[in-house]
Amino acid sequence: MAEENSQNGGGDSQAAGQQNQQQLQFAVQRVYVKDISFEAPNSPAVFQQPFKPKVGVDLNSSSQKVGDDLYEVTLKVTAQVTHSEEGTTSFLAEIEQAGLFRISGIEGSQLEHTLGAFCPNMLFPYARECIDNLVNRGGFPPLMLAPVNFEAIYAQKKKRAAEQAQQDAGGQTTQ
Fold first, then answer.
1. DSSP-assigned letters across all residues of 132-172
2. InterPro entries this protein is in (predicted)?
């Protein structure tokens, strides 16, 4: 009888663990390009001089709930290359790489972290490849963007938001 009870007890906790795992879901539904742009405003003159690039990259991500447990995350990457001596724009490549993610069982700060760091990290390789392809098709040497630490970017964003909230709260109490 004691063996029977311990087997049932073990089974119940195992079933509870499986139920928790079934409730937590994360799946990529689709990865797609939402917007894409390439401009070489100073061509063909830019091809008639030595290529001395100065690269500027801007990253931004956003997310929105689009259905039950369905979220769209968009990673916007802008790469602007100017001539390092003249300051003229060689090219501007911009992409909005997006993805649909089915997420359930994750809430609050964990969901915010998933949407703000984990999902953009998954989208970045697609955006990086697309930017490189655009630049090559524009007649320029490859532009392989360096890996990005979205965890650090997310942490900095949260820190700035907390500092801003503190300043706003401090400003309200002194008025």
1. HHHHHHTT-----PPP--HHHHHHHHHHHHHHHHHHHHHHH
2. SecB, SecB-like_sf
| Distance in angstroms (rounded) separating the CA atoms of residues 114 and 36 | 25
The DSSP element (H or E) to which 111 belongs, if any, is helix 108-113
Q: Check: CB of residue 67 under 8 Å from CB of residue 133.
A: no
pLDDT in tens, 143-158: 999 999 999 999 998 8
User: Per-domain residue ranges for the chain?
Assistant: 25-147
Q: What is the average pLDDT across 33-51?
A: 93
Catalogue the long-range contacts made by 58-66 (C-beta closer than 8 Å, 24 or more residues apart): 59/148, 59/153, 61/116, 61/119, 61/120, 61/123, 61/150, 63/115, 63/116, 63/119, 66/100
Q: Does domain 25-147 have CATH number 2.40.37.10?
A: no
Per-residue pLDDT reduced to its tens digit, 86-129: 888 999 999 999 999 999 999 999 999 999 999 999 999 999 99
Global confidence as pTM: 0.79
**Beta carbons within 8 Å of 77's beta carbon, 6+ residues apart:** 57, 58, 59, 94, 95, 97, 124, 127, 128, 131, 145
What is the reported pLDDT for 100? 98
What pLDDT is attached to residue 161? Answer: 86
